[in-house]
Every structure is written in structure tokens, then in C-alpha cells.
């Protein structure tokens, strides 16, 4: 059985802001490509929730890249079969 993906309000807002930036600066093609990559990450997490690597600071948090510059941070609620997406961050500002 696939896991359910729940996107936090913060992650949804971040995706919206990134899409607005991409549309303004790079146009429809860049925004569409980013959207497709976010959907692919969601599809991966539905079937393989432990695909991302563990976060070095918080063990219960995992991260999976959305190329080229973003990381999806999420946690897995295994008994409930839920992947809860916490946020998206710009990996160039990771540290």
C-alpha cells in the first residue's frame, strides 16, 4: 500500500513562492519543469518513503532533492503510512 503524502502549509507556500519566482524570472518552461520535479518527488515518496537520506541534525527528518537547488524535508509516520512534507529549502543556503 502506498503512503499518503501530506504537504504542510509551509511547504505549500514555499512551492508557490518558488513557482512565482520561476514564472517571473524564467518563464513557463522553468515553472513547469519545477512542478513536474516536485510531483516526481511526491510519487517517489508514496512508494519509497525512506528514499531520502537522513538529516544530519534531526534524525527523524529525511531529505530528498528537487533538482537543481532544492531539498524536500519530510518525516515518515510509518504506523499511519503517512509522509509529512515539512518544507522545501534552497540547498545553496543549507548551512
Protein model, in words:
The protein is of the alpha+beta class. The protein has a single domain, classed as YaeB-like fold (2-Layer Sandwich), CATH 3.30.2310.20. 40% of the residues lie in helices and 29% in strands. The protein is built from two helices and five strands. The longest helix is centred in the middle third of the chain and has 20 residues.
Question: Mind sketching the topology for me?
Answer:
Blueprint lengths: L3 E4 L1 H18 L1 H20 L5 E2 L7 E5 L3 E8 L4 E9 L5
Task: Identify the CATH homologous superfamily.
Answer: RelE-like
Low-confidence stretches: none
| CATH topology-level fold name | YaeB-like fold
Mean pLDDT: 93
What composes the largest sheet? 5 strands, mixed
| DSSP strand count | 5
Based on Cα principal axes, name the global outline. Answer: globular
How many domain regions?
1
| Sheet with the most strands: spatial strand order | 1-5-4-3-2
With helices defined by DSSP (H or I, 4 residues minimum), what is the helix count? 2
- CATH architecture level-2 label: 2-Layer Sandwich
CA distance, first residue to last residue: 36 Å
> What is the N-to-C order of secondary-structure elements (H for helix, E for strand)?
EHHEEEE
Give the structural class.
alpha+beta
In short:
The protein has helices at 9-26, 28-47, and strands at 4-7, 53-54, 62-66, 70-77, 82-90.
Features:
95 residues; alpha+beta; YaeB-like fold; five-stranded mixed sheet; 2 helices; globular
Amino acid at each position: 500500500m502506498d503512503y499518503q503524502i501530506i504537504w504542510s502549509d509551509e511547504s505549500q507556500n514555499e512551492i508557490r513562492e518558488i513557482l512565482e519566482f520561476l514564472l517571473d524570472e524564467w518563464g513557463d518552461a522553468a515553472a513547469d519543469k519545477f512542478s513536474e520535479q516536485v510531483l516526481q518527488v511526491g510519487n517517489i515518496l508514496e512508494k519509497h518513503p525512506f528514499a531520502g537520506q537522513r538529516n544530519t541534525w534531526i534524525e527523524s527528518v529525511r531529505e530528498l532533492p528537487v533538482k537543481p537547488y532544492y531539498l524536500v524535508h519530510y518525516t515518515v509516520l510509518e504506523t499511519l503510512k503517512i509522509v509529512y512534507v515539512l518544507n522545501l529549502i534552497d540547498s545553496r543556503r543549507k548551512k
